[in-house]
Amino acid sequence: MAVLTADKKVLHADLQGDSLRAASGSMVAYTGKVEFKSAGMGGGGGLRAALKQRVAGESISLMTCSGAGRVYLAQDAMDVTVVHLQNDRLTVESDHILAVTDGLQLDVQFSGLRGMTSGQGLATTTVTGTGQCAIISDGPLIALAVNPGEPLVVDPDVYVAGTGQTQMSLVSGVSWRSLVGEDGGEPFSLRFEGQGTVYIQPAER
């Protein structure tokens, strides 16, 4: 299996005769003998997944990198974080996925929560299985723990991903932007309960 290593704003992907899927156009350099080809919408899941993504308006354009060597991946000078999954599930905003190793399955889930609050999209991507997933963020990714009996509330504009056994709900309330007159609509936040980790970025979309 390919090995992913984050180096600030660049991802090192070491291949030893295997392959991985990465965001199209994210390759900035490579060494060795590596081939690149389009993996289509989502890089897996077939026509059903592609149709779900098209309906959601949030497709993922991925490429397959295969061979032996090191591939350097980056996108828009954003910070890179590698999340390790062991028979686990990671729910991530689709445009924050940089690369995934073999052994991980991608599927689109209709949450609608962030789309309702920020107008950015109506679907997120669920990554399941065992492997590594590289996530990009505007600034260093911040991991916040969610524990039973201790709900976590975050601004939807900074939410990037979440893992573990958590339940997400939409809550209304007064935000800082509404207090200073920068938010014309009703303010909303995302509330997480259960056990897991929520990842946010230190910059709003």
How does this structure look, described?
This protein is mainly beta and 205 residues long. It has a single domain (3-200), classed as Double-stranded beta-helix (4-Layer Sandwich). It has helices at 46-56, 113-118, 176-179; strands at residues 3-7, 10-23, 27-41, 61-73, 79-92, 97-101, 104-109, 124-137, 142-146, 152-154, 159-172, 188-200. Strands 1, 2, 3, 4, 5, 6, 7, 8, 9, 10, 11 and 12 form a twelve-stranded antiparallel sheet that branches. It starts with a strand and ends in a 5-residue tail after the last strand. The model is unreliable at 43-48 and 50-58 (pLDDT under 50).
How is this fold's topology laid out?
Elements (H helix, E strand, L loop, with lengths): L2 E5 L2 E14 L3 E15 L4 H11 L4 E13 L5 E14 L4 E5 L2 E6 L3 H6 L5 E14 L4 E5 L5 E3 L4 E14 L3 H4 L8 E13 L5
Antiparallel strand pairs: 1-2, 2-4, 2-6, 3-4, 5-8, 5-11, 6-8, 7-8, 9-12, 10-12, 11-12
